[in-house]
Design a protein that fits this description.
The chain is mainly alpha-helical. It contains 17 helices and five strands. The chain has one domain: P-loop containing nucleotide triphosphate hydrolases (Rossmann fold, 3-Layer(aba) Sandwich), CATH 3.40.50.300. A five-stranded parallel β-sheet has the order 2-3-1-4-5, sandwiched between helices. The protein is globular, with a radius of gyration of 21 Å.
Length: 388
């Protein structure tokens, strides 16, 4: 399995210089968890290959990648479109951590058995775990082992993701983990081989000829590599006003940092490095929009999605040349009610993180122009309620 070894000395340096009792506990837990899961994945990969040799021949239909900066509605759109089981299949959280046929088939069989048992004990256990394990994400990002989720676990277990800063809040010292597209060719290909292997195994168990639908708020650092591996893929880019998305994104990470590093202030070196990453994401995503085949990319403004999600979803289908099935179209209103039931009521401003609207505007002026976003008006624009 691919491992970004360049991140190891960087993580070790952070551990030497930034240690505290809480951080050491988090780091040790993370290290043990990654080691155990990687070992288990190695074993189950061998089991898969023995029992299902046809995995190697599994076809990957052109995937659909939903991406955008964090807090831009990607979760809402992904979970709505993932309900279209005629066209798409998407990973649940446990499947992204364990993309193995033997695991997916075993859990599927246990689920079918559970449906015949009074009280559905397996289902009840999963709900209990979701409440206990993911309660810290309440009001930030609704999560669950059995919920449709992005594929970030694959990259996290390989130490090639900015998500590492959730546990190691020193992004400016984690250069090797931030951008897959900037890695040497051999490393990029090794990582893509790992991802492709995981995707083929998932599709072998759950594909049934359907297209893989994924969403990622950390897609920008790997756009080029993913399109190189899947040149026929479709992209759906959700873009939100930077004055709204960036502070919401910073708050999401800062709130998690406070669980192990309460000394990190909102206006800090760590937060400013994260803000720079958010700006870089806008830049890389915007450059993709300008250079990618317009027939295979749909750019959607967040406010349009929130204002009329049904019309937006149907427009995306039309622009991608996909005919919504009658079952999905009939359920669309019901699905949207279920998904929009989750709304964050939090409000954030750039100023609380030591940033100014003018600075953001100067960095992203062409993005503002392209998507007709309002420029600074002399007073803070607070983030409205967030979806996804």
């Amino acid at each position: 399995m691919y491992l970004n070894r360049g991140a190891l000395p960087e993580l070790a340096a952070i551990a030497r210089h930034r240690a505290s009792p809480r951080r050491v506990f988090v780091w040790a837990s993370y290290a043990v968890g990654v080691a155990l899961v990687r070992g288990f994945l190695t074993l189950t990969r061998w089991i898969d290959d023995v029992i299902w040799p046809g995995i190697a021949e599994q076809r990957v239909e052109p995937p659909v990648f939903i991406f955008g900066n964090a807090r831009s509605g990607t979760t809402l759109l992904h979970r709505v479109m993932s309900c279209d089981e005629d066209h798409f299949t998407t990973m649940k959280l446990y499947q992204s951590v364990f993309p193995r046929v033997c695991i997916i088939e075993t859990i599927g069989a246990l689920g079918r058995l559970d449906e015949r048992v009074p009280g559905r004990p397996l289902h009840a256990s999963v709900r209990f775990l979701n409440r206990r394990v993911f309660r810290a994400w309440d009001g930030i990002h609704e999560m669950g082992l059995d919920r449709a989720e992005e594929d970030e676990a694959i990259f996290t277990l390989s130490l090639i993701t900015p998500a590492l800063v959730l546990a190691f809040p020193d992004l400016d010292e984690l250069e090797s983990a931030a951008f897959l597209d900037d890695k040497p060719e051999a490393e990029r290909q090794a990582c893509l081989d790992l991802y492709d292997d995981a995707l083929r195994r998932f599709l072998y168990a759950r594909g049934e000829g359907r297209r893989f639908l994924n969403k990622s708020v950390l897609f920008a650092p790997r756009i080029g590599s993913m399109l190189e591996r899947y040149p026929e893929a479709n992209l759906v880019y959700l873009v939100r006003h930077p004055f709204e998305a960036i502070p919401s994104f910073l708050n999401m990470f800062h709130k998690k940092w406070l669980t192990h590093s309460p000394e990190i202030e909102a206006d800090s070196r760590e937060v400013r490095a994260l803000a720079r990453l958010a700006i870089d994401y806008y830049r890389r995503s915007f450059e993709t929009c300008r250079s990618f085949d317009a027939k295979r990319l749909v750019a959607v403004r967040y406010d349009e999605l929130v204002a009329d999600p049904k019309a937006t979803v149907l427009d995306i289908y039309d622009r991608l040349g996909i005919e919504p099935g009658p079952a999905f179209e009939a359920r669309l209103d019901e699905i949207l009610v279920e998904q929009k039931a989750y709304m964050s009521s939090h409000r954030y401003s750039l100023e609380q993180f030591g940033l100014s609207e003018q600075d953001i505007y100067e960095e992203l002026e062409d993005v503002f122009t392209e998507f007709d976003f309002a420029p600074p008006v002399g007073e803070s624009i607070e983030a409205r309620s967030s979806v996804g």
